[in-house]
Specification:
By secondary structure, the chain is α/β, with parallel strands linked by helices. It has two domains: about 325 residues, TIM Barrel (Alpha-Beta Barrel), CATH 3.20.20.300; about 140 residues, Rossmann fold. The chain is about 40% helix and about 10% strand. It has 18 helices and 14 strands. It has an eight-stranded parallel beta sheet. A six-stranded mixed beta sheet has the order 9-14-13-12-10-11, sandwiched between helices. The longest helix is centred in the N-terminal third of the chain and has 18 residues.
Amino acid sequence: MTESSLRGQALRTLLAAFEAPVVPDWVRRLADEGLGGVVLFGANIVDERQVTDLISTLRAGRPELLVALDEEGGDVTRLGYTSGSRYPGNAALGAVDDEDLTRQVYAALGGELAALGITLDLAPTVDVNSAPDNPVIGTRSFGTDPARVAAHTVAAVRGLADAGVAACAKHFPGHGATRVDSHESVPVVDAPLSVLRERDLPPFAAAIGAGAPAIMTAHLRVPELTGDLPATFSPAALRDLLRGELGFGGAIVTDALEMGGAAGDAGMGVAAVRSLAAGADLLCLGAKITEELVEATVGEIVAAVRDGRLPADRLADAARRTDVLAAATRAGDPRSPAVGTDDIGLAAARRALRVYGALPRAVRPLIVELDTPPTIAVGEVPWGLLPYLEATGAAADLVRLRPLNGDHIDVDALARRAAGGPLILVSRDTHRHARIRSAIEAITAAYPQVVVVEMGWPAWRPEHAVGYLTTYGAGPANARAAAEALLA
């Protein structure tokens, strides 16, 4: 095979990225040359018209180019990176437990993607959140019950398909039992295969049964399955389990290879070769990608075929599967975004809200948000009640404190400011932050009218709060649903 033919096949296995709202010349050139696709991140998105123009530029020479992004709804959003998603995420949908609603929400979300020309959604997250202190899944999961997660996986995959968008279920073979973020290092799920088959694999089997055309790998080790390798580099996980036992015939997509759990010290090119050799087809390189890095990765893949590290037929098979995915998801003409999507997102968030105890009323309550850092997957997306309350001018005093960054919490001062009325404390994933928990416990012990709003995974509840709300997500729809309950 000629060098140019190998280069073309190598290019077709790559999902590249760039950090700008306009298409760089090098990306346009590689797209025309045969690049498999482009994945968009928050830095690429300003508004609908800009995204439509960007995608039209990308596809000017090759209409079949895959354009993908992580649009999970809820806390992980790219389209709503500056404002938050208009849809609640998986945890809220799982709490409602209405599969028809989940399908409708994903169809509405997919309609927005399709309107912009996006053909591949790197969603849904189908991990079973079996470890409450999981640092990377949490509200991205439909829940803790494999059967419920599987049922909503089917609904999500079909909802995206209803809109003409391909789903990519993630993160195989299951990230929900991890206690380490694979963006930073390699988590280990030290469980026997029997546990994986019962707990983690049913949602992936359900996604395959629902016709999901793509499944994303996880950069984690399951020693009994993958030995010393992350699943992304494991033939036992990808070829034997996913292809063989589960019968998946679509495209295997890697999570970002720039992550600490993948490339590590070996480098992007070596990671690309290892994942292709293990059975992956489409390699998501990550967000911080340059022309030089893409070219070096292509060169490493070609060299690996030449020196025998990567069989030529494996590269050809990967390129073919990516071609099939691209052909099945070829975008039509951009359309106007679907109407009424705010309504369905808010309706879902209202149904997900859970209220426990009393909600004392006041003409102007004091609301204190205890800010917590986002996960790498979420990024710096606005969250909580404050953006909604500030935008609507609601009658409430608004304070945001950052205890994890050194902000002192003066309980007496807050009590004086509340002036005998209710004090509303807002946090997310409180169970993961001992300092936030201690602050809430101190306030609820000292002040009689505290209501706590949990906008993350509700794994911890303070003992002395008179009221407790769980939203199962921190986006605008969740915030409005909570504000309605608190301020009505």
